[in-house]
Design a protein that fits this description.
Blueprint (H helix, E strand, L loop, with lengths): L1 E4 L8 H13 L10 H5 L3 H18 L6 H10 L3 E6 L9 H16 L6 E4 L5 H12 L3 E4 L2 H7 L4 E5 L13 E3 L5 H4 L3
Parallel strand pairs: 1-2, 1-4, 2-3, 4-5, 5-6
């Protein structure tokens, strides 16, 4: 089988990272059930950009993969499945030095966290739902592990979507989409 997996929000816990660093940086909290820094801390988009200017390098290079991610994906690979990283990480689709740096950082991060994969597909973060849909369709992805509701709603028409449960996707109530809370549950959801 072909298995697709998202990075931010699935392989990483971007939500709790943003809460922790955002509380330090902004010294306040407004809304928790969102992935938007601007909404989470009731700040402007300019303040959100300043936040990410300070923290993006640490996040991309030093945040650890979720517990059990490496082992669960290696088990799936050992069973003969192909693993595709399908991500809309910011800047990775840019055709300039910044794009190259962000792609290399992601590859380095995957290696240092022992995340096995057969290929990486970079999707534009502004058109993530369409590009992830097209990537899943083109690669014949059987299962896609994703956290973003908009992406899930697009992907589920061509692949079996598995939602990595997060506070910002709690309102996803779709009987066609299975949910997991951790990587230990992944092998129970993916069936040959």
């Amino acid at each position: 089988m072909n298995i697709g997996i998202d990075v931010d929000g699935v392989l990483t816990d971007i939500y709790n990272y943003q809460i922790e660093k955002g509380q330090q940086y902004f010294n306040k909290m407004k809304e928790k059930n969102t992935l938007s820094i601007a909404e989470m801390f009731d700040v402007t988009s300019e303040e959100e950009k300043k936040f990410w200017t300070k923290y993006i390098w640490e996040y991309c290079l030093k945040v650890k993969a979720r517990e059990g991610a490496s082992e669960a994906l290696q088990k799936l690979k050992d069973e003969g499945n192909k693993i595709y990283i399908i991500t809309s990480r910011v800047h990775t689709t840019k055709k300039n030095i910044l794009g190259l740096i962000f792609r290399k950082m992601l590859i380095s991060w995957l290696k240092s966290n022992k995340i096995p994969y057969d290929g990486i597909i970079y999707c534009d973060d502004k058109k993530s739902d369409l590009e992830k849909y097209l990537s899943c369709k083109k690669l014949g992805i059987d299962y896609m592990i994703e956290d973003d509701i908009v992406n899930i709603n697009s992907i589920k028409t061509v692949s079996k979507a598995i939602c990595f449960n997060q506070p910002y996707n709690d309102n996803l109530n779709d009987s066609t989409v299975e949910k997991i809370n951790n990587f230990q549950e992944l092998s129970q959801k993916i069936r040959r």
